[in-house]
């Protein structure tokens, strides 16, 4: 199967046009579009948590189950870019999913230091923005999905942090009573370092580097 794709220069032009279009969107449209995107990403976060909730793999092959979970997560960004939907339910209030949520939230929020979360935020949005770049680069549906899939798989498998994805993982952990996590800790160690890292990773390491490379070439 051939991959039909734009050139890097054409993608930069497409990104610029998309940026102008999004910058001129009305506030209500931006709000409802963001709500829809958050719901779609929450679907993928739910799949990651349910996949990680396999006790045997967690005890005997944690790296393998993490890789498998990372392989399925990219469908969230694919749906955000290609379509729309809503989310409901309380699936993770029961075992073994509740334990998977609390373990995941603890590893994401309690264990790492502030600077570690910040650095993981840089790497994460660098890869996410590359996924968006490759998604725009594809001309047909298959090319877009392939382009999106692998950078997103990379960020999940490496354990990087995305501020929006964590808005599913960490609040869910708080609601289910994960020890050591509260709203204040989440804002200080979750939102702030991840958001700053994501901005730098997406804007500087991906956006500026891609534009500079294309201009130089």
Task: Itemize the secondary structure elements and their pairings.
Elements: H1 8-23, H2 27-52, H3 55-60, H4 62-72, H5 75-82, H6 97-110, H7 114-137, H8 141-157, H9 163-175, H10 183-216
Subcellular location: Membrane
Keywords: Membrane, Transmembrane, Transmembrane helix
Membrane topology: Multi-pass membrane protein
The CATH superfamily is Glycerol uptake facilitator protein
The residue ranges in which pLDDT falls below 50 over 5 or more consecutive positions are none
Number of strands: 0
What is the H/E order? HHHHHHHHHH
* Mass-distribution shape: globular
**Major sheet:** none
Which structural category do the helix and sheet elements fall into? mainly alpha
CATH architecture type: Up-down Bundle
Count of alpha and pi helical runs: 10
- Mean pLDDT reading: 80
Proportion in helices: over 70%
Domain count: 1
- From the N-terminal CA to the C-terminal CA, the straight-line distance is 29 Å
Classified by CATH, the class is Mainly Alpha
Stated plainly, the CATH topology is called Glycerol uptake facilitator protein
Strand content: under 5%
Rounded radius of gyration (Å): 18 Å
């Amino acid at each position: 199967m051939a991959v039909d794709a734009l050139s890097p220069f054409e993608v930069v032009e497409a990104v610029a046009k998309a940026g102008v279009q999004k910058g001129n969107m009305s506030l209500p449209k931006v709000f409802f579009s963001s709500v829809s995107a958050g719901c779609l990403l929450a679907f993928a976060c739910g799949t990651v948590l349910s996949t990680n909730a396999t006790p045997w793999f967690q005890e005997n092959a944690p790296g393998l189950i993490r890789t498998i979970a990372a392989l399925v997560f990219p469908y969230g960004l694919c749906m955000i870019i290609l379509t729309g939907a809503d989310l409901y339910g309380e699936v993770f209030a029961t075992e073994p999913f509740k334990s998977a949520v609390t373990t995941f939230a603890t590893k994401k929020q309690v264990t790492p230091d502030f600077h570690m979360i910040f650095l993981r935020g840089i790497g994460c949005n660098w890869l996410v923005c590359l996924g968006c770049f490759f998604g725009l680069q594809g001309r047909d549906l298959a090319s877009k999905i392939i382009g999106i899939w692998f950078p997103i798989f990379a960020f999940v498998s490496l354990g990087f942090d995305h501020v929006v994805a964590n808005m599913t993982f960490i609040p869910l952990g708080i609601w289910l009573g994960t020890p050591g996590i509260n709203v204040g800790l989440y804002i200080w160690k979750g939102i702030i370092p991840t958001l700053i890292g994501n901005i730098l990773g997406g804007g500087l390491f991906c956006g500026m580097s891609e534009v500079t490379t294309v201009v130089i070439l």
